[in-house]
Amino acid sequence: MSNTRSLTDLEQTDAFLRRHIGPDDAEQQSMLETLGVESLDALISETVPNSILRKDLLNLPGPRTEAEALGYLKGVASKNQIFTSCIGMGYHGTLTPNVILRNVLENPGWYTAYTPYQPEIAQGRLEALLNFQQLSIDLTGMELASASLLDEATAAAEAMALAKRQAKSKSNLFFIDHDCHPQTISVVRTRAEAFGFEVVLDDVRKLGEYEVFGALFQYPNTWGEITDLKPLIDAVHAQNGLACIAADLLSLVLLTPPGELGADVVFGSAQRFGVPMGYGGPHAAYFATRDAYKRAMPGRIIGVSVDTRGNRALRMALQTREQHIRREKANSNICTAQVLLANIASFYAVYHGPEGLKTIAERVHRLTAILASGLEGKGFKRQNEHFFDTLTLDVGGRAGEIVERARAARINLRLVDETTLGVSLDETSSRATVEQLLAVFAGDGQASDIEALDRQVSAAAIGIPEALRRQSAFLTHPVFNSYHSETEMLRYIKSLENKDLALNHAMIPLGSCTMKLNATAEMIPITWPEFGQLHPFAPLAQAEGYKVMIDELEAALREITGFDAICMQPNSGAQGEYAGLLAIRKFHESNGDEHRNVCLIPTSAHGTNPASAMMASMRVVLVSCDDNGNVDIADLKQKAEDNADNLSCLMITYPSTHGVYEEGIREICQIIHQHGGQVYMDGANLNAQVGLTRPADIGADVSHMNLHKTFCIPHGGGGPGMGPIGVKAHLAPYVANHPVVPLDGPDPENGAVSAAPWGSASILPISWTYVALMGAEGLRRATEVAILNANYLAKRLGQAYPVLYSGRNGRVAHECIIDIRPLKAASGITEEDVAKRLMDFGFHAPTMSFPVPGTLMIEPTESESKAELDRFIDAMLTIRGEISRVEQGEWTVEQSPPHNAPHTLADITGEWDRPYSRQEAVFPQSWVAANKFWPSVNRIDNVYGDRNLFCACPPIEAYEA
Ligand SMILES: *Cc1c(COP(=O)(O)O)cnc(C)c1O
């Protein structure tokens, strides 16, 4: 045994950095040689503008090993106290079926996938989402549902916006029933103010006194009352307005669905379908409406189409209508949503089936009825006459005392005021819960006879009004009636997983999306009960662990970005944009500059930028880019001057989505400031800044951080995400606050932008762990290697495909765009053909046609090894060779492999009359066979799917056919 290695050296073997970074030192060296630069440092100084490149390391703790970081975080988490939550208010205890917990939530096959823009390799999650839509349709009684929104409160705001677009009424007034959840009211008000709608908050009995374009009711309402919606909906319709209903999904198992009562939009949270409360999220919201409003829907719709063999195949319907793609014409700015959580909710319904759900809902209701009866017997007056799972009680000045007793029994009640308490039961409640609650309320030490109470309530059938008991069947489709044993369920989940390509199969080089490693160590804490089981409105004293973790993450993000304050509320990058623009708006207003409403946006911007600007009622003025892809500074200057009096802000992405570090970025920020504007930096590309420069130092006033890009939260097939914003001190008072849990810092008058105070708090441990494992040096190295990998790809692919833009010294940033247009002109092979052909090699296509139509934007991230990059390059060069053969007339376009891609097993086992071999079709390189991914369908017909829009599970006959 040799003793040449030092102990310190031996201890390094557990360093996380080398696990996160794909290429090892030797590979990095070889790539640097290809680029003709000496060192990583040299590459960086050739690439990043000198005026913004920082020399110092960030001041951050770490790096820690995986064991150290998780050990520390476990200690932090254990400061959270898990009480039985009876708070209700839209968040309920639930039991995540273990088969779903382990095989979906904890499974990289599900959580590392991307939004299903390439449907041929995403049929699994598309089916799960279609099930989610069917579930939403069945339980609400509506005609059409979309795939998922961010949370119930933002879904309410989207419903209001839909009502405004679709209602015949010319009114500018929106009615909100004051018995809705407070967080919903707050988020809707914030949105209404941004849109310039007026809002009235009142008792539903006063509805007739107003003329409204829409109204929001909650069913059952925040106090648990179940009101007959029919007369209210009729009254809204009489005014030519639309009726929007927030409904509890589980209650709809037993209640007449709002669709049968005439509702126009029905939405709510799907949290209690198996998704832990997680101190506020992430959870999916569902959203259902009339068929007539399908083109006004926010978010994504999954539709049924056919592939080139005529087989059934799923895709995102009306994809060119996808919200952010329509830019300022978008219905909303939804991009990242909550796909993983929607999938979990749909699996929950598949697993339990209609009978299982009925059992759960009836049990919850029966226990609530027993509790109601017991409390009545003990002299407590119930304020809601009817109920599903929630009771609001008049406790005559004893609220404080009862809440204290409840805490001693580790139960949280909803404390409304000194005389009023709320109590909600859920799937996790039992007889014991009811016994405990009765003892807590009475405080007389007397045990209750649950059996006797049960006999009473069964006889009296109290709770749900006779006329509002659900009669209609639901979830009759076979998918909800076939997988109730664990074996069947396990195999159903696996069969869907097998159809999807995720990061556990190959690199997903999606430009602008930063599909980097989502390390297992980072994922482990999110399913710890200490993080999962907390209600977002639990007393702060019970959430100390969350406070420590969030404070530490905020401190790290402040250091990384240079901002003075962080607002953790937005649940996606796009929501961050909206929240940031609102802060800018309020800042201008506070200076008496209400008129400042012009938002400058370069043409290279992501579509969410103009969509968010529209939501903040800003006027979008586009700024052109020059031939090198940079913002045209002369044009920017001109437009800033022309609009100087009304300039609100600039929205700029840095490095730009053209994949270059613009040298003029400081000057750009100065021009905006000189004209009285603020700089909003879209932080989607922060992965190219961390450790090398900082948004606030460059000149940004506010910026969002897509924690699901740069900070390792997995994309979950299209969500969850987190889009906290960093702001400079002058904007800090103007960021979102929360009506239920007031936050330190922002003005208490500020409304909320999300339902929960810290957004999707339970996924923040992922980003916390990433920062802890990497440390300052590691974070900087990650950025450097991301740049190295991108430049290596650009250099090697550049021989075959023109790289559209590059910066100083011909370098790209952390991503690059290759131009397919000249090849298309010469050969007829399209960018889509290239994207689909990549599937035959087992790769996911890069981002297609964004930000420039006819191009592919490639972002390898620091996590991909040289070997994987070389395979990708190999695949791209092979495809280039195929394009050449078409150019040279050897193949017609129609006969060529790219045109016929992806190739399926059905292709090569059926008749074969192509001029290339089956081998070339499915094993186009020798290495493909060793890890073959088989697309489960052929190329999907987009036009057919949009012409024959069908967004529910196909009828049973379709299965038989
Ligand atoms: C991803 C992205 C967004 C939107 O972020 P979401 O989290 O998906 O809402 C905005 N701008 C750019 C440049 C992006 O890449």
Automatic annotation (TrEMBL):
Catalysed conversion reaction: N(6)-[(R)-lipoyl]-L-lysyl-[glycine-cleavage complex H protein] + glycine + H(+) = N(6)-[(R)-S(8)-aminomethyldihydrolipoyl]-L-lysyl-[glycine-cleavage complex H protein] + CO2
Name of the top EC class for this enzyme: oxidoreductase
Residue numbers bearing the N6-(pyridoxal phosphate)lysine modification: K709
Gene3D superfamilies to which the protein is assigned, alphabetical: Aspartate Aminotransferase, domain 1 (3.90.1150.10), Type I PLP-dependent aspartate aminotransferase-like (Major domain) (3.40.640.10)
Any one annotated GO CC term: cytosol
Cofactor(s) annotated in UniProt: pyridoxal 5'-phosphate
Glycine dehydrogenase C-terminal domain residues: 782-903
Record EC number: 1.4.4.2
Domain Glycine cleavage system P-protein N-terminal: start-end pairs: 18-441
Subunit details: Homotetramer. The glycine cleavage system is composed of four proteins: P, T, L and H.
Name of the featured protein: Glycine dehydrogenase (decarboxylating)
Biological classification of the source: Bacteria, Pseudomonadati, Pseudomonadota, Gammaproteobacteria, Pseudomonadales
